[in-house]
Amino acid sequence: LDPRTGAPRLVAGESRRQELASFVRARREGLSPAAAGLGRMARRRVKGLRREEVAEAAGISVAWYTWIEQARDVNLSEQTVESLCVALRLDPQEREHLFQLAGHPAPALRAGYDEHVMTSVRALLGSLEPNPSYVLDTQWNLLAWNQGAVRVLGDFAAVPQERRNYVRMVFTDPAFRALFVNWEEMARCCMAHFRRDSVGHVEDPKWLALVDDLVRDSAEFRAWWLQHEVAWPHHWQKELRHPELGRLLYDTFDLELFRPARLRIVTYTPRVVVAPQKSLPIV
Length: 283
Fold this sequence. Notes:
This protein has 283 residues and is of the alpha+beta class. It has 12 helices and 5 strands. Helix 2 crosses helix 4 (78-87). The N and C termini lie far apart (65 Å).
């Protein structure tokens, strides 16, 4: 028994299941039939939706859904959690919360998933001009960038979306790789932190496909990936060899956003310009 409450003490994992059950039940009871797309209905005895209605909308059995609300020890797949999010009309914060309660990583922000967030992020990137700045998700996909990044690092919009990944560009894009004077040190640091950040995605087919492509296409990635580095010293300084601007030295810093989706804003701040051929334009 819990000495504070006198209630039975929860075993490991049970408190998470209890919290998940309470959260799902509260959202079901707070969702009106009209909001769930069921239209106007006769007066009902139950508050919100019935369990049968949520189960049908999520494509699972009533018994399975009932076990979820009873905090039974059931294994919820990511697909089932996603179906529950849709059935219960969860907003981005609630969706992330349910995934975490189910023991899965919060899904990365997808293009168009929450456009008002990306609008604010793009405005922040604009305020950082002329410093090169860009936004990464948890799998290091490039989601947005400013004009400073275009001038110094290249036009990411010209890269096909399916290949617009920072790690992929570091290891397989010759022009991007050639920008970095100390490429090996930067690339090893990049890989170590990518591996650490991606730990929650090791069963994600897109993540697995990305790693497979990198192992196939880059000899360095193939060799270093086997070393399982996750604590490589962070390389804050980037020295670039720009074809028009000459040698550029930057300090970098990261700003992490956790709500409503995990994003990382990376900014390059000029430190010293070594033998520049022309100055970086200020806008």
